[in-house]
Amino acid sequence: MKITITKTANPKAKPTSELGFGKIFTDHMFIMDWTDGEGWHDARIVPFENLSIHPASTVLHYGSEIFEGLKAYRRKDGKVQLFRPIENIRRMNNSAERLCLPEIPEEDAMEALLTFVKCEEDWTPSAEGTSLYLRPFMFGNDETLGVHSVKHATFIIIASPVGSYYKEGINPVRIMIESDDVRAVRGGTGYAKCGGNYAASNRAGKKAEDKGYSQVLWLDGVERKYIEEVGAMNVMFKINGEVVTPALTGSILPGITRKSCIEILKKEGYKVSERLLSVEELSNAMADGTLEEAWGCGTAAVVSPIGELCYKDKVYIVNGGKIGEVTQHLYDTLTGIQWGKIEDTFGWTKNLD
Ligand code: PLP
Ligand code: COI
What we know:
By secondary structure, the protein is an alpha+beta fold. It is built from eight helices and 18 strands.
């Protein structure tokens, strides 16, 4: 694939204060366009700038949008590495298929990602727990109000140096189990990473935040009975010695961090079950003390202990509100591999060159 590179004439100063999440953007972005019949074309890296799009553009009216999230990590030796980027590329193509957006050949998507990260490599921060968050996204861009699968699309990658997603950092977060709104149903777009899933979750998210909770834990969209996932992460519980995580039934995001946690735990001999977990089973485990640990996992959230769960105004404290042993172990192992502090025996990391 031919990628033209136009460097900015005005590089920005690198941030020196607290990074937060997704507030600061690097100097460049990757863009390429797709036209039905012609395919992907005009791959380019250009200075970071506002987009100009037609007011009738499909994405603005019908939410024709998908995105990904992955990180570049600066290792101790100064080199920069990515974590399982091929998984993000494959998931993006699955999301594209669901939304009738064009897929990108895996090798082109990888080349785009690696070329872009190389260009922005200097923006990868080195302070403990920081990384360069990469946000590939794609949207339908037809200039018409008709509802159809699109004939024009745009794919962009932007990057943002980030610290922790939650203000709590690695300290336990408080999560509210939502019993009214639902995020997704089977047959819908729950397994795809599309903007609409997040737009529809904002009302419950706001309700939770107003009560002092970080995010919502969703129940299934049909019976409101089974645990699904949290707003920006998958969820895992240690109940009576067994690690339980909701099965991928089509309505939750197949998280790459989830998959990695399962692989780490299984390799180490833990009992891990991907299965249906009812909120009743969870409430009983919280009430009788067999719920030993709870945590969320995601690229932005990393491994995030859950210290408190609220369901229908009943509050449960998990593990005395402290991070549990397995949660801490997973955090250490995963971040150890991601930042190159421990050997990657899984072959998950990808160097830039
Ligand atoms: N579930 C949702 C709804 C998410 O937004 C995310 C974040 O990407 C995840 C789960 C975790 O996925 P991953 O580990 O691939 O980042
Ligand atoms: C990620 O973890 O990469 C995500 O996409 C979560 C995001 C919604 C902040």
